[in-house]
Amino acid sequence: MEIVRTAAELSQHLAGAKRIAFVPTMGNLHRGHLALMDIARQHGDAVVASIFVNRLQFGPNEDFDRYPRTIDADKAELARLGVDVLFAPLEQEMYPTPQVYRVQPPPLAEELEGASRPGFFHGVCTVVLKLFNLVQPDVAVFGKKDRQQVKIVRGMVQQFNMPIQIVPAETVRAPDGLALSSRNNYLTPAERAEAPNLYRILRGVADEIARGRHDYANLEVSARAELAQRGWKVDYVAIRHGLGLRIPHPEGYDHPNLLIVLGAAGLGSTRLIDNVDVVPGHGED
């Protein structure tokens, strides 16, 4: 595996590639990330991973400084999987001057994660666009745990006429259902034992919809209340249509196959997100 730090080195090592599959990450890799690398291998003859903790997508009171950085272990895992190139730029390589040009994401970016983390998707879209310009991939793989991100990045690619196929990958979970995330490392043992209840409660809402309920607002309120009673600080539980993450029709006209239940909540000092398809494997992506 080649490890490159600069755009010039990256271009040099990818010069002969016929089809590039790309997985952007912020490092601290877990099994979920590694599954993305396996999917990328199915789509390209050259697999590129990036590790870059992007300051632009962190708010002033968020965890940029304490975000886990495990570059040596990450390198070893990527090499073991046969990743061809790791692009691990320093901040001055990605932002040699202050980034005054930013991508303006769509109104969806102000909802859900965007409402809880103002400016988050401006930072995500800006760094992803820069990475796409540097790597020039044919395919890019993104995990569905960050479902809103997948939708917004795909829309950006379509609207800017970028010749990149966005491949969504199913969320990888621990045996107890907890979605794998770098932020799980922050959980205390007691919080880790509680954490799977986010998935359980979202799955419970989805199962109620699958059984025919369409009083969506009541289901959202009940789920938020249950999480709050268990000690969570709830940002949102939301039922959305998979196509564009719009609010579903209140009379239940949307087919359950196309509905998704999304949630974000804090446990102690750690904020976790998750989502489930009402009918597993059928969410619109």
Q: How would you state the average pLDDT, rounded?
A: 95
Reading side by side through the largest sheet, how are the strands ordered? 1-4-3-2-5-6
Order of helices and strands: EHEHEHEHHHEHEHHHEEE
Strand content: 15-25%
What oligomerization state is this entry in?
A: single chain
Q: What is the second-level CATH architecture of the largest domain?
A: 3-Layer(aba) Sandwich
Count of DSSP helices?
A: 10
The description of the largest β-sheet is: 6 strands, parallel
Radius of gyration: 19 Å
Structural class: alpha/beta
Please state the overall shape, judged from the principal axes of the Cα atoms.
globular
Number of strands: 9
* Overall structural domain count: 2
Q: Show unreliable segments.
A: none
Helical content, roughly?
A: 25-40%
CATH class value of the largest domain? Alpha Beta
Under CATH, the topology of the largest domain can be stated as Rossmann fold
Short description:
It is built from 10 helices and 9 strands. With 285 residues, the chain is of the alpha/beta class. The chain has 2 domains: 2-169, 3-Layer(aba) Sandwich (Rossmann fold); 182-277, Pantoate--beta-alanine Ligase, Chain: A,domain 2.
